[in-house]
Amino acid sequence: AEAALKEFPIRQLPRFAPWFPNDLYRLPFKPKKQPPVISCEEAEELKQLSTPSEYV
Amino acid sequence: MTTLTRQDLNFGQVVADVLSEFLEVAVHLILYVREVYPIGIFQKRKKYNVPVQMSCHPELNQYIQDTLHCVKPLLEKNDVEKVVVVILDKEHHPVERFVFEITQPPLLSISSESLLSHVEQLLRAFILKISVCDAVLDNNPPGFGFPFSSLSPSEISQLVLRKSSPYRACQPLEIKPFVFQDFPWILADEQDVHMHDPRLIPLKTMTSDLLKMQLYVEERAHKGT
């Protein structure tokens, strides 16, 4: 337990910085298609359908 | 210790396999943690030896798979700077951006056969950080997600920044055309990228012989406005 109370060397915390900051002159790509809309009703139906399979 | 170049043993493909599998798990978990979709579509799975939540909605799963299927050849060629999961509000302005910055060292020092399992341990740390990141992020705007409303079609989008992509309007990705036949990509809008005075929240940095990766969140200062 004494060893745990002793001073120990502390490393300097590195300062966070993004490696590749945003650059509006170099725009990225994105999928043209948009992700699906999922309503709460559809989610509920899916949950009911998938629940029994968890116990198979 | 043996030093190999990235071309040896097809390490580019190994890294692309590892990364695309990880990104798939991470995207599902981000959607769950940030309540982008109703929690009813998610099921608990075990990945990297920790519990994660994965969607069981076929159309959403296909969308994520198609996206990452297109990213994989770029990862293989070490041609990706970052992959960003953008969460948009109803006006299609970003409220949060989960930024995965990726670099691959040109030389690999193969010191042990446990290299891959070591990387898996490091990736697990990213998953654990994503699981708890809601504690350091502000809530998203009212009516934004579960359980109060269904979402507008473009509330998530994935952006990929290539190392060699100068600003050229609507330049298609130059990879195998058949991959993109049913899943085309377009140049992102400025509004997808630009966020006024964002708050930067670092989540995790890893350094390994195989790859270096850093994850942080850019959060809009006033989400409700």
Taken from the alpha-carbon principal axes, the silhouette of chain A is flat
Mean pLDDT of chain B comes to 78
Silhouette of chain B: globular
Radius of gyration of chain B: 18 Å
Any low-confidence stretches of chain A, pLDDT <50, length ≥5? none
- CATH second-level architecture of chain B: 2-Layer Sandwich
Distance between the termini of chain A: 51 Å
What does this structure look like?
Chain B: It holds the Pfam family HORMA. Chain B: Residues 13-217 form the HORMA domain. Chain B: It comes from Oreotrochilus melanogaster. Chain B: Its main location: nucleus. Chain A is mainly alpha-helical and 56 residues long. Chain A is built from two helices and one strand. Chain A has helices at 2-5, 40-54; one strand spanning 29-31. Chain B is built from four helices and ten strands. Chain B has a single domain, classed as Cell Cycle, Spindle Assembly Checkpoint Protein, Chain A (2-Layer Sandwich). In chain B, α1 (11-33) packs antiparallel against α2 and α1 (11-33) runs parallel beside α3 (115-131). In chain B, a hairpin with a 2-residue loop joins β2 (42-47) and β3 (50-55). The interface between A and B is large, with 29 and 55 residues.
